[in-house]
């Protein structure tokens, strides 16, 4: 079997042929995370797998393959355990500056680590190409593996689709705790559905919105807040709504209303024609509170 079939998958192939790891050929648009590093990539694959086993002792069958062999520059790697297959590309080059600014600037951690991330030297791209159907479980598999790169001078985990990021030491700390990653499950806007605030010229107030919910088959949400002081309120609201929709399989549509306490009603609408800044991939619902 050719190395391209092993790395990218082939419609006629199953997960494994012999001992080879086969990427799922039915995934056309995989979810992914990026890890940025200080200095050149210096990854020891055996230590990487040992760390993953240490984080989750229930993993028994983890292994890796290098479909293109050892490369002089960069990394190509397949990592597999259970249902999961993760494709890794690594480059000894900085991650695009505009994407870093998009994902790091709105993040809620210190300026010192943000500056280190802006000055990072190399990066890995992790894509889920396994056989788990639940998108959240796919993200959790990626996050488990991402946590293991702290030992190799990793700085942060970036989710470009969600416009968000977290320091890798925070990710590793969560992953190393018993059920620690449930924090990311219970609060999707932390990493998987980012929470962004921004001002628009000639509009009074602060727009707050999510990104990346479309990966879960959910709408993103936005609201025009009065000030930045309402950030926690809308962060919690978006998080609760997204969790409710994901768990219940319910739907929300323009025109829906909901009572939210204190004699207040929440109504949903589609973005207006002049709200071009809210329009991107997937559906978005604007929340208005009366």
Task: Describe this entry's structure for a reader.
With 290 residues, the chain is of the alpha+beta class. The protein folds into two domains: 185 residues, no CATH class; 95 residues, no CATH class. It is built from eight helices and 15 strands. The chain has a seven-stranded antiparallel sheet, with helices on both faces. It has a six-stranded mixed sheet with strand order 10-11-12-15-14-13. Helix 5 crosses helix 6. It is globular and about 60 Å long. The N terminus is likely disordered.
- How far do the termini sit from each other? 62 Å
Strand % is 25-35%
Structural domain count: 2
N-to-C series of helices and strands: HEEEHEEEHHEHEEHHEEEHEEE
Q: Radius of gyration, Cα only, in angstroms?
A: 20 Å
Number of distinct beta strands: 15
Regions with pLDDT < 50 over 5+ consecutive residues?
1-14
In what order do the strands lie side by side in the largest sheet? 4-5-6-7-3-8-9
Q: Which term fits the overall shape? A: globular
Structure annotation, total helices: 8
Helix content: 25-40%
Biggest sheet, open or closed, and with what strands and sense? 7 strands, antiparallel
What class would the helix/strand composition place it in? alpha+beta
Overall pLDDT confidence? 89
Organism: Gilliamella apicola
Pfam families: DUF4261
Domain DUF4261: 209-270
Protein name: DUF4261 domain-containing protein
